[in-house]
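Extended Data, record ING domain-containing protein
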Amino acid sequence: MATDPFTHRMLTALESITDLHRAQADALRSLIELQRIQAVALNRMVDVLTSPMDVFNAELEAQNKQAESMAAMAKRMEEMEKQAAKVLIIVKRHRYL
C-alpha cells in the first residue's frame, strides 16, 4: 500500500515529534533523579551541620552558666569586702578606746 508524499511527510514529522518527546521524558527522568540525589545530599549536609550546632549550643550554655557562677562569686566577694571593712572599723575603734 503506497502512501502519498504528504501523508509520508506527516508520519515522518510525527515520528520525529515522538522521538523528541521521548528524549524530553528521558531528560526529565534524569533531572528528577538528580534532584533526588541533591535532596539526599542536602539532608546529609543538614545532619552534618546540625551536630556541630548542638555542640556549640551546649558549649555556649556551659559558658553562660560559668559566667553566672562568676558573677555570683564576685557578688559574694563584694559582700565579704564590705564585711571586712566593717570589721576593720570595729577593730580600729577598739584599739583607740
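Summary. The CA atoms of residues 89 and 95 lie 10 Å apart.
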